[in-house]
Amino acid sequence: MNRLIRAGLMFGNLFHVHSPALVERYNRALEHLTGKRTELTDFYIDISGYSPEIGDEMEDPLYLNHKGVNRQFILLSVEQRMSPLLNTKFSTSKAILQEFIAENEAALFALTAKDAVAGELVNSVYDVSTPRRLFDIRRITIDADTTGGTVKDAAKLATMVDEFRETEDGWYDDVLIAQMIEIAGKTGDVVRNPVKLKTMSFDQRNFWTAHFGGLYVFQDVEHPAVIAPAGKVGLDDIPMAFVFDATQRTHIAKFFQFNGLTETILEARGIKSAAILRQKMDFILIDAVADQGVDLTDLSRGDLRRLARQHSDKLPPEFHTLGQLVNWAENGGAFPNIDSNDPVYFYTLRAADTPDAELVNMLLAELAPKDIRQLFICHKDLFYSTYAAWPDAKKAYVADFLERAYKGDKAGVRDALFGHAPQLQVPPLPRRRKAPPPVPKTTVPDGPWGPPKGR
Question: What order of strands is seen across the sheet that includes strand 72-75?
Fold first, then answer.
């Protein structure tokens, strides 16, 4: 992993805590949340305030996320919103923290100038000892305040100010005035500078969780289902009719199709589909030859073609099918007939323009894991665990590729691969002009999902 760390592809953009003042604020918050303190004087934290160094020190990577639910957080600066979320247990957690910081930026900027803000992503579930418990998580509410209780005190002071103003003899209430002065010494003037964090709640209906081998839960769609790529063993108590594992490719394809969650790369507007498919071929080629002792450094397009010729016997079927798609897109060759049982099928898809696009792309990355760029962008936890088992030659190639072709323009690459440009309004064609043929679609074999599990 050191190669990834040096390239800024792992533990990148973490917030550096190194000044004595910040360390002390962090310790006050940490003690407030967990009853523990760190002896470290220099460490890095993610968007939630989790530090891998402190996790090592305490021998507890979940010291801010007990049992993987109700994640706690420590904010020392609004700059943490640019940091990643490490040890993710729910796909929604980072987006919730980012929105909370964005919606409360001015208040958090003022509060963190003097103290740390500590909080929790609260739901009604305190453990997920069984899969069924995941479905009791419906709404996440953020509970946050400074370690000194500034927000709570400010609300109390605001109530006192209202009472003082509305009471006819307020000027004669020495006790009330004394209490107001005491609290104002901690909160400042809440009339001119209100200190308040918005009460924020978030529905959690469609999400990924790391629990139980990794599950994709889709409840808020027309045809709900759970996708369990690692397998369905131990998931009998899930209160949903349909649970599919990675072997049920046709069922997953139908699930995508019924809910309008995906589109083929060839159909997507505003992208260079042939170039994207060709890059996927490169990744599959590298995966096939990485353990053959070949040099994978500084490969040109000609070098890649040479490797494909020399090791053609080792190339999997998806490489050749992608080649036929590229040939069709660029040269008008025959369009290959691809159904969901074809190993290449999920490599040809991307998420459609829906609110769950990121979750769908994350699932597609797991169903098409040889596309290392999509895997890194959409499912970092799986990327890191997979990377550890690769031959060293592939590790070096992937780290170099991502540093060179992704790190410098993350937003541009993501937009090119997954973005959704506004649909253009195309005027109808004249009657006598023959319309161009529609883009061929990859097909899914006919047939229903089948009966619900258990029948």
Answer: 72-75, 117-122, 139-146, 201-203
